[in-house]
Amino acid sequence: MMLKSAKALLFLFCTVSMSLSAGSIAQAQSQEIAEFTVHAGENERLNTPVSASLDGIPLGLQTGQELKLYEITDGREELIASQIDADGYDKTLRWILKGKTPAGTQRSFLLKREKESDRSGDDEKAVQFKDDGKSLILMVEDKKVLSYRYAPTPPPEGVSELYTRSGYIHPLWSPEGEVITRIQPSDHYHHYGIWNPWTKTNFEGREIDFWNLGDGEGTVRHKSLPTTIEGDVYGGFEAFLNHVDLKAETPDSEKVALNEKWEIKVWNADPEQGIWLVDFVSRLNPATKSPLTIKAYRYQGFSLRATEKWDDDTATLLTSKGKDKSNGNATRARWTDINGVSETESGTSGILFMTHPGNQNFPEQLRIWPEGANGGEENVYFNFNPAQEQDWKLKPGNSYSLKYRMMVYDGKIKPADAERYWQDFGNPPRVEVQKKVLKDSRVLVYTKNGEGYVHENIPNSIEAIEELGNKYDFTVDASEDPADFTEENLKKYDALIFSNTNNDIFNTPEQEEALQNYMKSGGNFVGIHSTSGAERDWPWFWSLVGGTFHRHAPFQEFTVNVTDKTHPSTSFLPNNWVREDECYYLKQLNPNINVLLHADMTTVEDEEKGEYPGQVYGDKFPLAWYHEFEGGRSWYTTLGHSVEDYDDPVFIKHILGGIEWAVSGGSL
Question: What are the entry keywords (predicted)?
């Protein structure tokens, strides 16, 4: 069905689809998606979490399919646990580099799309959580790791209600069950296990203390718990917290000054060796149009108040610089190991705190209660402080991240082991990604032109796609002979790429019918630039491409905006892509297309644009899109006029993403 009014065209553009239903293309039982090479680098690795971005890789999952990761060793494939998460537009695959990986070596992994496994049995994940209505408790193999308290915790009887607090970690357990943290000690009622407040801040001209709750200047409250995760590789949660100014001149004397997001991951890294690995990420965003400045002060930030069992006689502390409890305060360190007595079989338990090179003022200065502090009793307190000696201004509209890792264990660890754990966190193995989506595929590049204008770029486009074939291991045939369009011949191809075809490109009805049957049988179509100018009297072809050529503005520099960054053909592009090209205007747009790119018409000089498309689209016009069509899939871009485009790696990546999606056989 063709659109019949300007109103319908406008509706189409404003209702861009951001997802796809499962296609009907028949798929093999197993298809390789990507290959990963993990490089240990200069450090030995042991049961190390690793991750690889899947950005730009079409996963192509249909109903009844799943992704499986295999390690390749001496030609053998071993299935290993893996997990996918999504941070914004970026899909990330995570797994554990099991066992020992010597320095200077590498390991190979293969991601496949396969038939879903039979899950009729028990399908409990290794890392799980329980919610008791006040706290979220994370566990590995039924052993408690940590508890995140989201409900307000009142202070002890007789203590000011100002000390009420939510949004902290307590208890933190060792693998053998020792509680390492504490809250509300009588010497500091505002201490809450593991927490992350700021002591000296300036907000809208007011000095606000979010740490010393009893002063009544500020507090921190849990807001929401939007995400919880269970899995065989990791489990965790995301939580939002509000830093509240209690001195604001508002009707209720309160104002949120700072938003904070916690991202917690508990890794199923090495439970057999008796350790927990916990990643803690704090993302800070000013909550108003006013900045918030964290003033330089001796204690604030990511903090631990340890169990009351630990003091000068029962606990030790060692930093990566060799400092201890007597001389470590206000020094800098990548890691700090804190160890003390416990009622476990090992007799001691500990926690290794690690900071990340990307943090503000890395390596942050430390706040350590020295020997004799707190009367020499119950005096193990520690924090990484990114603003101990200099202010840190948080500007509105910006996001600031602090990343830490905790390794929790029983017994003792050596400094060399602590350094190895930090290297895994701060200098992780490098993961090299090689797409396999197109491996062993075959495509036909069709370049037939009828009478009329013929683009000079055609040989360049063929050469560029052939180079992609060499790089990504797929076969490229090129033709301008319509006699190749027979049902039998087209069965060889996973995609047909119409590159700069124009005007009449078929000679017989049988050739047209072969193309139609190819698409109805689950074939795939990719169109580049003037392909929309082909077969201008054939409505079916208009629908396949997504529209038919109307006219274009003069060749010029203009701005292309990305409408959808989830697609492999656009995910890598800047939001505003400035390029030289012809701004194509198509008519008879298929209402099912999903728009990927559009022209910013305010940057296009065109004396006729007020007639069309200006009356319909205003300041925007679609330039690239994708859609499912009669059992197959179709991707088209209007861009690609000049010869130079086919030497442009960004434009070629745009074309590659379209081919990958067309061949991938499923939704993104």
Answer: Signal
